[in-house]
Amino acid sequence: MHQQTFSRGVSDSLRGVMQVGIMLSHLSYTSAEPALLFTLANKFGTSIIALYFFISGYGLMQSVRAGRGVGHLGKRLWGIFKPMLFITLMFGVYQIFYGSGYSAQWLSQLVWQGRTPLPNSWFVFVLMWLYISFWLAFRYLQRRRTPALIILLLLSVVGVIWCQVQGHERAWWATTLAFFSGSLYAEYESKIYRYAKRWWALALALLFVASLVVADIEYLLPLAYLVIPVVAIVLMNRLGYAAWIDREGGKSGEPKTSIGAQIDQGIRQLMAYLARISYELYLVHGVLIIVFRGDLIYICSDYTYALAVVVGSILVADLLHGLFHLKLRPRQA
After folding, report:
1. Per-residue pLDDT reduced to its tens digit, 34-91
2. pTM for this structure?
3. Which pLDDT tens digit goes with each residue over 101-124?
4. Domain locations in the chain?
């Protein structure tokens, strides 16, 4: 029997909160002495990105396991590319009039140097490559998933090597293998979790990650992010987070109208809201980090600036999410 240890409710609840963490992480670079919260977010920023990739690989593999196939590749790619394209064009207009201008060599800079037209959008290009890799691996091997997983691993490694050889910054390749880790975990979830949940296994995993960090061999970092998302899942289950987020009411025996249950429900609703706009939030926050300290607008106070970026990013992301998912009702006769 397949044991579900990473439900849709858990992954959905994490996406929005993790995106806020990424936003705070990037804000840590905007002041000489960043607030403690921003510094802590920065320490976990790469692990958060790895968990994003893990969730993507896990979700696609669960779809294959359920017999839904790999889906329409073009539709999937367009779904993540369209919002980025729109925001990139808007940011390009801003750069022309109020920023540093726009380079006509953006495509060659993107391919050969890893310099993206939109701040932090490297994530989108890596994710698109991983989607293509998954499609290539599973398009004709849906019933032979182990060989397909090997092909996915090889294609993921090709992407890592390409970025390393081209000298792309570490963000492009450090967490890429977490996507494969998510796919592998989804396929062998019960077996992996049965061993990973034991304290000695957790200790060994943490020792392995710590050894890679201490060794400071940069090219081995992707191996650490193969393991970190699995450790995070085990801890979320052992500490009760997974059970809490999937529970509809309050604590066992507690009336759903109690203050505690209402607070729990409010937190879940906020997390669900942030999860819903998380992709747009990722795309726009880097833009506002630049805009609010640009030639048109310049906010001097670090705390006012950070608040403006966070609140502004959420409002703009909500507006864009509504725009990108607008469904027109047919006219009635």
Report:
1. 777 777 788 888 899 999 999 999 999 998 888 777 777 888 898 899 999 999 999 9
2. 0.89
3. 666 666 677 777 778 888 888 999
4. 8-188+270-324
Q: What is the pLDDT of residues 143-163, one digit of tens each?
A: 788 999 999 999 999 999 999
Tell the residue number behind the tokens 């009411």, with chain if given: 249
Q: Which pair of structure tokens corresponds to residue 103?
A: 């380079």
The CA distances from residue 290 to 35, 100, 231, 305, in Å, are: 19, 11, 35, 11
The continuous run of DSSP H or E covering 184 comes out as helix 177-187
- Mean pLDDT in residue range 255-277: 82
Let me know: does 230 contact 205? Beta carbons within 8 Å.
Answer: yes
Q: What is the 3-state secondary structure (H, E, C) of the chain?
A: CCCCCCCHHHHHHHHHHHHHHHHHHHHCCCCCCCCHHHHHHHHHHHHHHHHHHHHHHHHHHHHHHCCCCCCCHHHHHHHHHHHHHHHHHHHHHHHHHHCCCCCCCHHHHHHHHCCCCCCCCHHHHHHHHHHHHHHHHHCCCCCCHHHHHHHHHHHHHHHHHHHHHCCCCHHHCCCCHHHHHHHHHHHCHHHHHHHHCCHHHHHHHHHHHHHHHHHCCHHHHHHHHHHHHHHHHHHHHHCCHHHHHHCCCCCCCCCCCCHHHHHHHHHHHHHHHHHHCHHHHHHHHHHHHHHCECCCCECCCHHHHHHHHHHHHHHHHHHHHHHHCCCCCCCCC
Judged by DSSP in three states, 61 sits in helix
